[in-house]
Amino acid sequence: MEVHVTASQKMKELRRILRNTGGIAIAFSGGVDSTFLAAVAREELGKRVLLITALSPTYPAREQKSAKRLAERLGIRQKIVVSNELKIPGFADNPVNRCYYCKRELFKIVRDVAQKYGIKVVADGSNADDLKDYRPGRKALKELKVISPLLKAGLGKKEIRYFSGRMGLPTADKPSLACLASRFPYGSQITREKLRSVDVIENMLRKSGFRQVRVRHHGEIARIEVEPYEIRKILEGKIRRKIITYARKAGFSYVAVDLEGYRTGSMNEPLHASASGS
Which of 7, 50, 112, 254 has its CA 20 to 30 A from that of 24? Predict the structure, then answer.
């Protein structure tokens, strides 16, 4: 018999999980999930919470600044560390399990910093919806004994946004984040220059008023994903010319707009198609 668990029950379970840690270090990106987790942890654990933010080429500069402001707003101590995934053997070649290498490197650093502060429990912001997509990084989390309180409590993205709104968190309606490495097809080389090229165009589009943006790097082609209702806007003369200008400066020869629009994990679609035999 299936038991229906309400959102409020999930929240109670999250609070129980956090209290039982006695103290926690959270890998903090400043996104919807890690900010919500940090805010609830602050309520349950007080000063026994440490936020650890890793600066790297795959982490947009605007998000680095945002994470610092959010930590200050939440009143939680934050430790900034430096990580460079491009130096990890195999990462830049962008294999299908690229995320595993990244997460393993990141959480080794996070774990070491946490131990210096006397904190034994390390957590990430994975939520229940993350189980719906290909997530090779979860293997690294299990190996390093990193917990995922939101996932364990059964909280999905919609519920996290809802409770974030009730708590007055500025991230309640923040667009979903993903590291810049997710913009590249598996098997294509990732470089600092390529990461910068997609970041520049995405930043321009956000400043132009587009809410959710991804610029997928397909060699000479920049494939742009925006919300379906914003596709018409991106084709307007002024913004279209601006995109072309930025894309050419970033090294792209062609620009394409994905008619399907933004969706999470579009680079994993070929994997799903292969698995289903289509």
Answer: 7
Do 195 and 55 touch, CB atoms closer than 8 A?
Answer: no
Buried-state track 150-176, b at ≥16 Cβ within 10 A, e below 16: bbbbebbbebbbebbeeeebebbebee
Q: Which residue spans within 120-275 are E strands per DSSP? A: 122-123, 213-218, 221-226, 254-257
- Whole-model pTM? 0.89
Specify the pLDDT at position 177: 83
Structure tokens at 119: 């904190």
Q: Please provide the size of the chain in residues.
A: 278
Distance separating alpha carbons of residues 97 and 126, to the nearest angstrom: 17
Roughly how many angstroms between the first and final C-alpha of the chain, as a whole number?
35
Contact 180, 193 (CB under 8 A): no
Is residue 2's pLDDT more than 80? no
Q: Which of 112, 134, 107 is nearest to 123 (CA)?
A: 107
Give the whole-number percent of the chain exceeding pLDDT 90: 77
- Helices 32-45, 157-166: crossing angle, 10 deg rounding: 50
Determine how many CB atoms are found less than 10 A away from the CB of residue 63: 19
CA distance 272 to 132: 11
Dihedral sign (CA 81, 86, 87, 88) = positive
pLDDT at 278: 45
**Per-residue pLDDT tens digits for 21-79:** 999 999 999 999 999 999 999 999 999 999 999 988 898 878 888 999 999 999 999 99
Q: Taking a C-beta distance cutoff of 8 angstroms, is the pair 112, 15 a contact?
A: no
pLDDT band (50, 70, 90) for residue 1: very low
